[in-house]
Amino acid sequence: MSHQEIQERIHPYVDGELDAGNTRELELHLNACEQCRGIEQRIRALRDALSRSEPGYRAPARLQKNVRKALRLEAKPSRQIWWLVFATGAACTLLLLTFAIFQTTRASRNAVADEVVANHVRSLLAAHLVDVASSNQHTVKPWFDGKVDFAPEVRDLAANGFPLVGGRLDYLNGKTVAALVYERNKHPINLFVVPALTNRSSQPSALTRRGYNLIHWTRGEMDYWAVSDLNAEELHQFAAHFAP
Length: 244
Fold this sequence. Notes:
It is a single chain. This protein is α+β, with helices and mostly antiparallel strands. It contains eight helices and seven strands. The protein has helices at about 5-10, 10-15, 20-30, 35-50, 60-70, 80-125, 135-145, 230-240, and strands spanning about 130-135, 165-170, 175-185, 185-195, 200-210, 210-220, 220-230. The chain has a seven-stranded antiparallel β-sheet with strand order 1-2-3-4-7-6-5, sandwiched between helices. A hairpin with a 2-residue loop joins strand 6 and strand 7. Helix 3 crosses helix 4, helix 4 (about 35-50) runs antiparallel to helix 6 and helix 5 runs antiparallel to helix 6.
């Protein structure tokens, strides 16, 4: 298998979906390839975060009252009572489903945020900040053609104090993504661009991880993560040039 085929099969490998032959070949590759082994570790960490049990929450007092009332009336079956029981059960199910979705989304977002910071730090430590070094947006944007299955928007922000440094390929949340690199007073800014799951835009939201500032937003069909050791105010100024 090629290196790309190996990376595409890491997800089914972690989920135990590969046959014995492919599993053996992939494990031999992982033992020898530090990059792919790191991808496997991030996928396992994300799966663990999503499957981690969450604390229980008490049902609202109003819902508890409705359930007790339905139980008291159970001895007098009628169409209205059965509708009340059904409605109460549906409300409880909806509440639990909404909470589960919220917790899963939050855990997934936190895991991606940790991965964004790890990718940013690795790009600095490995001196592999860019694959294509250029301050010209018309050089950087075409470089991604054929390397990712989307066209990242590349903007020239030199006049705004955020000169373009270049771009590279990176790996985020199980996908190959575009990483655009900008700079502000010698502080590198990594901007990760990946196709969004929905076309619904969202306003920038700020996070902090291990001393780094992050901003996440969705615009159009793209999901954006900006990360830097730059102060939060200036990073917000940078994000404003891309955000909705």
